[in-house]
UniProtKB/TrEMBL annotation:
It holds the Pfam family adh_short_C2. SMART domains: PKS_KR. It comes from Helicocarpus griseus UAMH5409. Keywords: NADP. GO terms for molecular function: oxidoreductase activity, acting on the CH-OH group of donors, NAD or NADP as acceptor. Belongs to the short-chain dehydrogenases/reductases (SDR) family. InterPro entries: KR_dom, NAD(P)-bd_dom_sf, Sc_DH/Rdtase_CS, SDR_fam. PANTHER family: SHORT-CHAIN DEHYDROGENASES/REDUCTASES FAMILY MEMBER (PTHR42760). Residues 3-208 form the Ketoreductase domain. SUPFAM superfamilies: NAD(P)-binding Rossmann-fold domains. This is Ketoreductase domain-containing protein.
Length: 278
């Protein structure tokens, strides 16, 4: 059986970067997304680039497979294991043998508790926390067979208050879910880890930059490295955690990929200490 990686939110900037990195160590990479057109577009582009790089034979299957799924719908998620193995069939095949599951999909629609409504709260927690449980539950048996790896894309918002309270609460829960998987499923050889990115330069932030050209200037002052995170930075961390050779004894950790944000802020330290060295 081929080694398979499944990435939710695979059509987004971070998902695409993760797919490129995991393609180096997996035979197939499945891009799960609710935006079918975008997932098809990304998979086609990556397959085209892969074909040119590796001179694919005409009878070889594509390396990147797009799959449509609303991961907040338990019924749709339950069908995913079979679809991953046979993308054109809903049933009738053996369950997929997945080596790596990346719960990457996430979004937020409310900036503060004042703006929050009960429906928005449910929508954000469903996508940012509940869906990751549903995906793990669906692929748990496959991961047991492969002694595989689960990597949940959390956020620094799950470690401290940076706004977006429902999203943040869900990401904090995702970090705890990660540890629960690591402890309970470690006996099956399954490793579970989380990555907590800071501000990532994605299309969402590009839209904010159009509204406020100084947004990155305002944001980067809080980062010790004086830059924001790139999708490739997140992908590199995921590739490390997915590797049995490099991280075979690493499980239950939350790795901030945040250009030093959670270490502390030089601007604040300088104000408190009245020292110019920060």
């Amino acid at each position: 059986m081929p080694s398979i990686a499944v990435i939710t939110g695979g059509a987004g900037d971070i998902g695409r970067a993760i797919a490129v990195r995991l393609a180096e160590s997996h035979d197939r990479v499945v891009l799960v997304d609710i935006n079918e057109a975008k997932a098809n577009e990304v998979a086609a582009a990556l397959n085209s680039k892969s074909d040119k790089t590796h001179q694919k034979e005409s009878n070889d299957s594509d390396k990147f497979i797009p799959l449509l799924c609303d991961i907040t719908d338990p019924t749709q998620v339950t069908k995913l294991p079979r679809k991953v193995l046979s993308p054109d069939e809903d049933s009738g095949s053996d369950p997929a043998t997945v080596h790596t599951l990346i719960n990457n999909a996430g979004a937020t629609w409310s900036d503060s508790l004042h703006q929050m409504t009960p429906n928005t709260w449910k929508r954000e927690t469903a996508l940012n926390l509940d869906a990751s449980y549903l995906l793990f539950h669906a692929f748990a048996d496959s991961l047991k067979r492969t002694r595989g790896s689960v990597i949940n894309i959390a956020s620094v918002n799950g470690l401290a208050v940076f706004g977006n309270p429902a999203y943040s609460a869900a990401k904090a829960g995702l970090i705890h879910l990660t540890r629960s998987i690591a402890v309970e499923y470690g006996k099956y050889g399954i490793r579970a880890n989380a990555v907590a990115p800071g501000t990532v330069r994605t299309a969402v932030w590009e839209e904010r930059m159009r509204a406020n050209p100084k947004v990155f200037e305002e944001v980067t002052q809080w980062y010790p490295l004086k830059r924001v995170v790139e999708p490739a930075d997140v992908a590199n961390a995921v590739a490390f955690l997915a590797s049995r050779e490099l991280a075979g004894a690493v499980s239950g950790v939350c790795l901030p990929v945040d250009c030093g944000l959670m270490a502390g802020q030089g601007v604040v330290a300088g104000s408190f200490s009245q020292c110019g060295d920060y």
